[in-house]
UniProtKB/TrEMBL annotation:
Transmembrane segments: 26-47, 59-78, 137-158, 164-190, 202-223, 229-248
Record has Coiled coil as a keyword: no
Origin species: Actinoalloteichus caeruleus DSM 43889
Key word Oxidoreductase present: no
Region (Disordered): 1-20
CDD domains in the cross-refs: EAL, GGDEF
UniProt feature, compositional bias: Basic and acidic residues: 11-20
Protein name per Swiss-Prot or TrEMBL: Diguanylate cyclase/phosphodiesterase
Entries under SUPFAM superfamilies matching the protein: EAL domain-like (SSF141868), GAF domain-like (SSF55781), Nucleotide cyclase (SSF55073)
PANTHER family xrefs: CYCLIC DI-GMP PHOSPHODIESTERASE PDEF, SIGNALING PROTEIN YKOW
Signal peptide (from-to): none
Amino acid sequence: MSDETGVARSQDTDPRTDPRSAHQRAFRFFAFLVFAAGVLASLVVGLSGTGFAPYGESIWWIGPLLGAGFLLAERFTIHVDVNRVGWTVSFTEIPLVVGLLVAPFEVVLLAHLLAGMGMLMGTLLSRRALSHGVYNAGVMCLEVAIPFGMVALLSGALQGMGPAWLPVLLGALSSPLVSAVLALGAMRVLGGEIRLSGAVRMALYILVIGLLNTSVALVGYEVAVAQPWGWALVVFLCATVVGLYHAYSGLLRERRDLEALSEVSLAVARSGQDAISRPASVVSHSQTDPVDWRRVTDRIRDQLNANRVVLHLFRDGPSEVVTTVSGEDQGEASAQERPWATRVDPLLRLPGSQVRYFRAADAPEDVRDALRARGATEALVVPLHGAQQVLGTVEAHDRISRWRGFGLADVRLLRTLASHLATALDNRQLLGRLRHDAYHDPLTGLLNRQGFRELTADRLRSERRLVLLRLDLEVLSTVSEALGHAWGDRMVVAAGRRMRDVLGPVAVLARLEGGSFAVLLAGHTDEEVAGLAERLRAEVAAPYPVDRLTVEAGAVVGYAVAGVDPEVRDDADSMLQHADVALRAARNGDVAVRGYAPSMGQIFLRRFQLVTHFRQALDTGQVEVHFQPKIALRDREVIGVEALVRWSHPEFGRLDPDEFVPAVEATGLVDALTCFVMERALEQVRGWLDRGLRLSAAVNLSVRNLADEDFPDVVAEALGRTGVPPELLTFELTESGVMADPERALPVLRRLHALGVVLAVDDFGTGYSSLAYLRQLPVDEVKIDKSFVFGMGSDLSDMAVVRSIIELGHSLGLAVVAEGVEEDAVRDQLVGMGCDTAQGYLISRPLPPDRFEAWLRARTVRARGSRDRLVLTLLS
């Protein structure tokens, strides 16, 4: 058993203060101390005349034979690399046992040293590794001197006690143990951590290997001496042991290679997974959690048994290279701090994805200079090829070995490691983009509602005084109607930029929807909050230049302070709700900035009144169903409608569905509302069928409908009673509604699908997991969210999203409906993309039944045959 150590040398730090330099000086002292001990022990044992020479001068060939044995033992080795020390499990005990039995000490020592001369010369001639060579020379002397000394002592002490070979067995076992103890000491001197349990396990492992080698040598010697052809059996036995060791070495390397691959890949991948699942408080625009690159490079270096491993990561284009080094010159720096870590370096200009091997002895001049700048004599270099670009490179310098540099096994391992590392980096970047998209608004780049909620919840757990401010930009809908949604989007972006200028770069700012923004503040007094809110309102309400026009805008602000109501526990949703109440109070009052007060909770009293009046409203005809037509884009034929609920309250007037539908859903009355809308829609479809018009009707489902196991039976009964074919009834559902309780929702959906009704996913594209769950839902069509359709005429990213959804839906055999079509150009683009159906204000607003009937009559033309055909003639 022998050991090898790597020497660390700092190039970027002051050697008088760098702790690594102190370890290097300590190791040099330790190396010369070991060498001196080896020489002294050799002199003492040599002068004492220990060793055997039973055949006298007639056995002159024993020296060359032992030298050949030591040489072969060093060539056929198993390498076990731990931290900065590499143990080499070899067969040196076999020739050592033979030497202890038949040769003088001087002959065995000389044979051992000559066998290792190649390694010693290679290290001693290099100033960089002088201490390494001196250390190994001293170890070689001790590996022979101590066993001979022990045999001499034990032969006298155990004379007449036990077999004659017992002293030789014990003496030979001392050689690997001494080598292991010295190697552990070297590792300690170099600053490595040594655990007692690990050291004990390593000692036991070495003892078992040494005992096996020694036993083979003793048995072989006895057989060779006792039998005329015993040497042939000994050769066969040695060959078998060598084969066993070789197979074990291969299995051991494969296992450690797999462990290294797994550890390197997971070290990168887990950071991205942790980042995508953590609260939005750690969201950045393009980064996930930092990776411990030193851990990655250390693992690669240990596996390759290299003196140094360098990882270059190319960030923000080729101009910036961040380098992490494991081994000599450890640390992390930019390309400016390490001139050789640049994209113009000859070692980094690698074609393809193969591992390149460079050696100073036969390399071109520019490569030789690059190796010299690194302080290396050989290097393995491999690029990290991602899906779209080269992500970086990995370098391994100077394999720590007595006999050889990097081999084919090292090349294969580094190539596989680079492939796994590049894949992990690609996945990590993808996770970062997905997480950013999940928590950010695509138009402004600010946090979206989900990201803002999670960040607020996270901050509320650690800070007591927080202020949540809500601001609404008014006049946005007017701008969109007059000038198009592109100009409305530009105003939203400009408003967000103005707020950022007032708040500063580190403030928490979000766009909730439309022209609605939210801000989270900390450490402000009430007066400061009011002043800041007024500044924000004034800045956002300043006129906006639109082409050669100046658009006057308005803004209202509402804010809520955590802890203002001691009876209410503050959370993200309640603070948003309080700020929204304050905002509505500002909109309805004569002050544009309002703070929340508990008395404003009266607004919730109105919601309560709406809920209590709702059942009566259904019975008295206050609630109506309006219909918005849908057309087939290819032939512009009206193929169906969407049924939308409207409420004209006798006291509160016409109510927006967004005001009363959430309250109805929260109180469990949504089942009655859904059944009401479905009944009215089926009655209309039945009437159209009687007139020869085949139109479908779409009804929205809520979360509670999907949780009702009896709902499919209600639908089946309504279809049977009205005689409407099930394919003319469509239920629209949102992904969030399904995923709120998928175990209950999916069975209900499957039963509805089995009835033959059409199932559609509404607002598709707004959920960050839509693609992941689409395949699980038994749906027939998808509806592109209108926020993407609005921006198609001016935003290429929205157009790309719409095109992707259409292609995805068609590839899955689904029909695709685009809602929110309000411009001719958008309709033409949808036709070109192959979208199936459209609805929106360009076609018609939602109309009450009587007006919708008039709209239908105006667009009904007689086709060939007796059946009426609905064609949207105004789009011709």
